[in-house]
Amino acid sequence: MAEWQNGKGKRPVRSFLPSRNSSILQSFGWPSRRSLRIIALVILVPAVLLSFAAGYYYVSFANLIDARLHGSRQRVFPQIFARPLEIHKNQALTSRQLIDRLNDLGYAQRLAPEKPGEFSVNDMVVSIEPRSGDLKGQDVRIFFRQPTPSDRKTSKPAAPPAKPAKAPPPRRAPAKPGDHVFELELAGKSADRLTMDTPLLTSLISGGEREKRRAVALAAIPPHLINAVLAIEDRRYYYHPGVDPIRMAGAMLDSVTGGGRVSATSTITQQLVRNVILPQFEGWTLQTARERNLRRKVLEQLLALVLETRASKDEILEMYLNDMPLGQRGSFAIVGFPEAARLFFGKDVSNVTLAEAATMAGVLQSPSALSPFTNAERSRERRNVVLQAMVEAGYVEQPVADAAIRQPLAVVQRALEAEAPHFVDYVTRTLDEDYPGLTTTTSTTVDVYTTLDLHLQRVAQDAVRTGLGKVDQLSSRRRKGFAEAALLAVDPRTGEILAMVGGRSYNQSQYNRAMTARRQPGSVFKPFVYLTAFEEAAAHGANTPTPASIVDDSPTTWDFNNEVWAPENYENEYDGPITLRHALARSRNIATIKVAEAAGYDRVAALWKKLGIGNPPKAFPSIALGVFEATPFEIATAYTIFPNQGVVRPLRHVMRIESGEKDITKPQAEGREIARPSSTYLVTNMMRSVLDEGTGAAVRGSGFALDAAGKTGTTNDLRDAWFVGFTPTLLTVVWVGFDENQALGLSGSRAALPIWTEFMTRALAGTPNVVFSVPEGITFATIDPDTGKLAQPGCPRLFREAFAAGTEPVEACELHRF
Known about the structure:
alpha+beta
């Protein structure tokens, strides 16, 4: 204890602090020592807890950022690819369509291509610097022919004769003048065919909210798009540490003084945290991450500061441009500017214009309210605000911005369809079923290489759109609403699905009619009746029936299971005695039922059941007319037996799947022999007459001259319209009808056949004619097509008919004897 000196000696010095019993200072409001301890605890405990929380969030967030940017747990979204783009001479491909295909591949349009992944357009020539392996480093030039007056006069080739010989003469599918590849040049030398890159269909995540995204490097994003985002969202982005105190102070001043509107204070870094990073924390969702409360705002600012210490400005900006939500199309959320560029404008992000870049940047503020698809006027106004902001920020000159402001807001309404969404849905669903957990991977790259031909997909969409427009005109007076359609194109040799259109508009309906719409096949089932008849004859060593056999196509009633059935032919047209070939070509109901009766209804049902698709139909007389249900997918599968000479080929949509560097593709189902090659060829050869002279003759009238076969289909009350047709290399099924199963009022030849014809003509343009091969056990004889007997000199018409060996007619035609 301190002491003080006085005259009487030393005395202890008392502390000036109040003692435990002192109350002098307490009388002036000074707290007691106990109170001080309580106050200290009240202050220190929250501070410690806050420090621990801050440390926890810092460590967790830092680890999350490090893993995302550089670590082994980097989040990777599965990528779904189409088959490589192929270009060949005389292909039905316009220069505009080629530009679209190059955008699909992510090629950048330049005045002159200088490095791989760039192209230029000069009049009727497209120059490309490929980046794919075999073509990399080689200059590619594609020439498009300019139509001439003589082309316009002779644009359609003559239709083939009604009496085909053993095989059509070699020829190529025609291409309309001025809309096809005229010449290919590779490294200065002429080429017939080029195989380009593999186009990316989409990167997506399944389960919960469905997203479409495609990440690109910051260097691939054009500067004017980056500047548009910075100008409207965060001009001081490169000058603040993640939180902008100057911007916050300005906003507070505006709020207090009321001198102007209150501007948003969230930086690009904060927006990335709120929309992308926070939802990845356990217990957080996108909804809670966007809630307006103090806890979320403080945490957002804290994590923004942390993010700026763990990643560079360019890394953060790249994540922002690739991961920010930009609206919804159909059932997909649009994530990132690269995907938005495709779904808004049908372009690769590297090719967007200044006005288009400003449009996308403007949508960021409120993707649903400012969508150019649903709120065009508001979107345009916001675009113009962005352009003016770019002027104020010094990114563009006022005249340049004014020119962009004057441009109309032009979006591609059907850009989502261009990415084959119904097909992507199908791929995603089957991946989830066959490879559980594969599409939700977070650390391993997953590349799914599909069978889809993106060019044929676009051709199919155009054909369906055009065809449905004509159907709308024809059926508008009959029914309310709009008909739907499905198209499925496959390579029958492999079963690979090349194109799939599941409906009129994916934005309006995600229902995939190609896969799941179960409708009556009607007359497209009839070929299987004739196949059953030929199979039964071959199994029992009988000489009949043959394609030249006569059946009576006259009104007939059947008594089956104590019920009387009196079917009719289409439009009540009857031919009387008719050959089986003509009965199938003209789709005669009565004749076909009699063929099924002779073969056995149970045998017809057994043949379809043997195919192993769908539900087997009942063995009733009505089976001959296709009175049961099947999907276009099942019909396409069944029809593969005809070009494959009796072997059914299961359809496939995946070529291979790579996880990391490992091929994890599961074995594909193999083809199975269902019928004899000879029996199947007879039906295929008969179906040629459907196109040459029967219900599908409009195909030849349109100029389609390749060797092909097919069958129209129309169900009771004209509810469903079908056409299934094929060459040896391409098989296509088209269905048209109403979802509510009301009557369409149009036959297959009027509703479905034009779609098939348009698609097949463009899909096969410039390809060589491939004829159906003749299997062993088939012979030919020249017959009179009216009687089915051997032709005589007096017969006015001759036909070279196919027969199973030993079943050729031996009797001569007596109807036309002199």
